Structure formats: structure tokens, C-alpha cells
Amino acid sequence: MKTVWCVVVNAGILFPYRVIAIDENETVDELKAKMRDSRKIYSCSIDEITLYLAKKDSKWPESPDPDVIRFLRVAVYLVDPEEVNDVEGDPLSDFIDYVYANESRVLESGIYSVVFGPLVNMRASYQFKYLRKVESVELDEDGEDQPTFEVLGESPFVEMERGHSEPLQIRLVLTGRKGEMRVTWVSGQVFGPSVRFGTATSGLMERRAEATSGSYDALDMCDEHATTRSSVYFRHPGYLQDAVMTDLVPGTKYIYRVGSATGVSSPELEFTFPVALGDRNIENQRPQSFFVFGDLGTSVLQKPIDELDFDDRNPERQFNALDMVSRLAKWGDERTVMERIRQDFDESLREDASDDTPEYAAVVHIGDISYAKGSTYLWDQYGAVVQSVASRLPYMVGVGNHEYDYTVNGEGHDLSGSEAALSNGWHPDGANFGNDSHGECGVPYARRFHMPEAMDATSNPPFWYSFRVGLTHHVVLSSEHRCTVGSPMREWLEREFRDNVDRESTPWLIVHLHRPLYCSESYEGDHVVAKLLRGCLEDLLAANNVDFVFSGHYHAYEQTCPVFQDECREQEGTAQAPTHIMIGSGGAELDDVSYFQANWSRSRQQEYGHGRLHIYNASHAHFEFVRARDRVVTDAVWVVSNHNWNTSSARRRGRIAH
Hints:
Blueprint: E1 3-10, E2 17-20, H1 28-35, E3 45-47, E4 50-55, H2 66-69, E5 72-79, E6 97-100, E7 105-108, E8 111-115, E9 125-134, E10 148-154, E11 168-174, E12 181-187, E13 194-199, E14 207-210, E15 212-214, E16 239-245, E17 253-259, E18 269-272, E19 288-293, H3 337-348, E20 359-366, H4 376-390, E21 395-398, H5 401-404, H6 418-422, H7 443-448, E22 465-469, E23 472-476, H8 488-500, E24 508-512, H9 524-543, E25 548-551, E26 557-564, E27 567-568, E28 570-571, E29 574-575, E30 579-583, E31 601-605, E32 609-615, E33 620-627, E34 632-640, H10 648-653
Parallel strand pairs: 1-4, 19-20, 20-21, 23-24, 24-25, 25-30
Antiparallel strand pairs: 1-2, 1-3, 4-8, 5-6, 5-9, 7-8, 9-10, 11-12, 12-16, 13-14, 13-17, 15-16, 17-18, 19-32, 22-23, 26-27, 26-30, 26-31, 28-29, 32-33, 33-34
């Protein structure tokens, strides 16, 4: 990720800014001398993406007329030279971010600044333009004003220093096979992509695994916006590289580097291969732990808490790309969920970590991944957001409505199976399954995330699959596909519980799916879906003694008691039903609605944050919700379970014999 220093100057007329090249050591007087040049864009030097706005005319009012200044903005564009003739729509409207001129900050001596960045290497050039919005009588398809823009100045193309071959968006993934770790990344077209790796103790990366390479096209997807060729909708996603490191030893730290024979390589990265499956020597080990959350996207908190004017009972919940500081500048904001996870993970790796410090085995992201909704560049930005964690810890995902839901053209495009494709997804009566993917219909999700397929040939990763780590067996389901008796996912789930779950080896059975079975927020359309999911799955989950059900979808946090058929089920502090934890608080705009009364609801918060699940032994687990804005644990629960409760009605109706 790189940045660029530029200057935008007021030349003393109504919309008069221009961009000039500067040296970071230049004085204000030297800058003023440059301002006397004719209005023109010169080159920008790569360093940090900061645009400096300076006044030439000292009579420029300190508080410009907002009705005038609101038409001025500095916008940033992606430019794909090879695709410039294929784009649809108005290129001037296709900026990926912008800042209004009146949102600049005063530095000194009449110089103002706006900030973009860090900018991700998306295998394209960046360009900055100073725009004036022109009033238009044209309306879009929704009857809204269709703005047009006049260019008052533009920068040259800004290239990334490491070029299009740079390997980015690096993620680790469990394969489901003994001693293996998958690594995936994105780059431009290269020759001989591979990963080199070795043990950290040796300091040598003597082993090499070749990568396969793939991609996808607008024609592979179902509908607009995903099929619209544009810098802000479909653009070439790069080449998705996929390699598997083998013969890894549990508990061993490895170093690795990805790259290609003809391009650049990544920095040296490291990971620790998770503890052995069924390892019960946990009394002599740190807790086996997992991060869990849903509904991330690429947004971050807009301002520090103490700068906001809001009711203390209602935490900040809005994201604003048009804030004084650009959205793109705040991925490293320490209050974001991914930054909080990174901090937790880094602390767990310290050499002086105590015996109680968690030993994290994986991240589980339960749907609504990037909120790209047809915009390829948002997949690129999402990959950059998670890389600091995902390149060092297995990153497992489940599908959400914003990756998959669609309404037309499924046949020949939907990769989740013919049944779903023929019906254009699942659309039960009264439920709110629409076109939330904006035509992606799961294609980018399926191409970008290679989840385990080894447990059962009838699994359907990344839509439904399972993986096992230490004392845990994880089942990842799709809430966007039919779960009724006889459906492909339901039949696979019954076989998974019957044939592959071994409570002696992995006593903790955990289910993840995007939409919750239990939530007390007042969203009527989603309540229809929750009741439908309970009708599909609740008996089966209870009959098989599922310990936890993690979900997202609602942009909030809620924890239930161990619950079955709307009733809490506990005996002398021991769970007798699954505990449901909804944690859709990863980054999308928080919910701001009321709750209905529910006796099974133990804790609920409309806050950003992530979950930490700690497995202490075969019978004791501890879950914590970490609030992002101050990194405080605001809810926690111990779950004690013998994994064999007596829910007789569930056993009769769950169709699984024990």
C-alpha cells in the first residue's frame, strides 16, 4: 500500500484548484512560487496519499458559502488501461472515494489537507481529479438526481511501486487433511506462482509448493451490478493463486513467502500449525481459542468516540466515506474489529505469554464478507483489511446473503448446485431473500475462498462444509440455501453428524451459519427466516448435542441461554441445549432498533466487536464479546457441557439415532 503527496491550489476564481508536484521538504514560499504557474496538473511522488490544498488568494473567505463549496470535491479513480474501452456508464461518476473541498483540514499558512489512503495495489493505476458537480435535470432509474461533473484538474496516473505482480490478500486456510495448510493470494498474471516455506527454528524456506491459478469474469455471474464492466463494478479480479503446504507438524512455527518466478514476492510471514486433532493434553497447554464474527465489509469507525455528540446509550453506528478524513485512510484505526483481533493475536504470540493466554487456532467469519455487491474493487480492499491476521491464522468463512442472494439467471452461473440454480436461490414465502449480492450469486465468494472438502465428498464448500481443530468439530452451513428434509444441505448435515462427528476426539460440536435461529431485534422479515430455520434445523442440532450456534446477519451482538423450542434448558449449571451467539458486529452499520421481550435472551448489545471462544478442556468453554471502541470485554459466559443432554422430543424428531 502506497501514498502520494500532491497539492491542490486556489487560483482565485470560482472553481480554481489545480494539483502541482511538491517535495515534502519544500517551504510554504516555495509552494507559493509554484502556485503562480498556469493551472495544470504535474506529477505526484509516491509516499503517503495526502492531498494538500492551499489558498493563493488571501481574500478567500474563511467560511466559504456552503452552497458553492459543496459542489467541489477531490475524487480518486482506478484506471485499467486495458479495459478503458470496455467500461459502461459515465467514467467521471466512477470514483471509488472522494472528499468534499470543505472537509479539508487547516495545516498552516493557508494550506489545507485532505487524506486518501493507504491505497491498495489493485493491479491498476490511480488518478486524482478535482471536480465540480454540475446540476442536472436527468434522473436515474430510481427517480433520483443523476449528477454530472466537470473536471477542473487531474493528476497523472499513479503506479504502485511493486507493480501488478505483487502478491496480496494473503490468507491461510485449513484443508481438512492431516499436516496441511492452504495459502491463497491475488496478483496480476505471473509465471510459476508458488509458496516457499520452512520451520522458523531453521530460518530457511527450503521447501516449495506450486500454486494453481484461476480467475472469473463478468459473464460468470448472474446479473447487474456484478455483470456491469466498470471501474466501480466488475473489473478484472486478478489471478487467484492457491497452494498447499504439506507435512506440517502440530504446534510447530513455520515461515513462508509467496510469489512467482517472474514477479515480486511477499514479505516473510509466519504461522503456527494448530494442535493435533483430539489432543486432550490441554491441562499442560494454553486454551485452544478461536476468533468469531460476521458482517465485516471494508468500513471502519468514522471518528474517535470523544469527538461525537451522541447519547451514551447509543454507541456510534454510522460509517461515512465523506468524513473529514477519507474512509480509505482508516483501515489501520485501532478501534476497528480487525485491528482489535490483530492486537489480541499479537499479544497471544508474545514470548512472555502466561499459561492462561489463549492460543488461537483459527478465525471464523460467518458471512457478509466484503459487502462488495458487484464491485470488484471492494473485494480487493477487503482482502487488504484482513491480511494482517489472515496471513498468520487460518481464516474460515461462511456464506451470507450479500455474497449469494439473487433472483435471476442462476442456471449456468450459480456454483452452489443445480437445485439452487434452477430456482434462482432459495425464496421461501414471506422471507426476505432478494438480490442482496447485486448479481454476484456467490461466484466471487466461491472462487476466492477454497474451504475444506476432505471430510465428505458430498460437502459443498465454501457453501457448506466442516473442519476440525484440537477438541472442536466445526460445521459451516448456508442460511441462504434450503434446509428442509430432503434438500442437499440437509442430507449432507445428517450424514456429517452420523458419520464424521466423534465426540471422543472432538467433544465440542459448533455450528456456524449467517442468519440466526434466535434473535430478539424487531425486524419482522428476519423473524420469518429465523422461525423457518428453527423449523428446519433446531431438532437436528439439539438431537446431536450441538454446543454452540454462531451467527451474524443482524448488525449487533446477542447471547442466549442454552435454548430449545424457545425455552432455556440447563440442569445444575450444565447446558442441555445449544447456546446461540449472534455476532454480526464486525463492521457494517450497526442496527438501531428496539427489541421484543424474550426469556431466552441473556445479553444484547448494539456495539461493534468480535468474539473469542476458548476451549479449556472437554467439558468447559468460555466465550467473550470484546467491544471494539475500547477493547473491553462487555459480555462473557462459561458453557459447561457433557455433550449428551436429554432432549427427548429433539431425539425423536431429529432423525439421528444415538
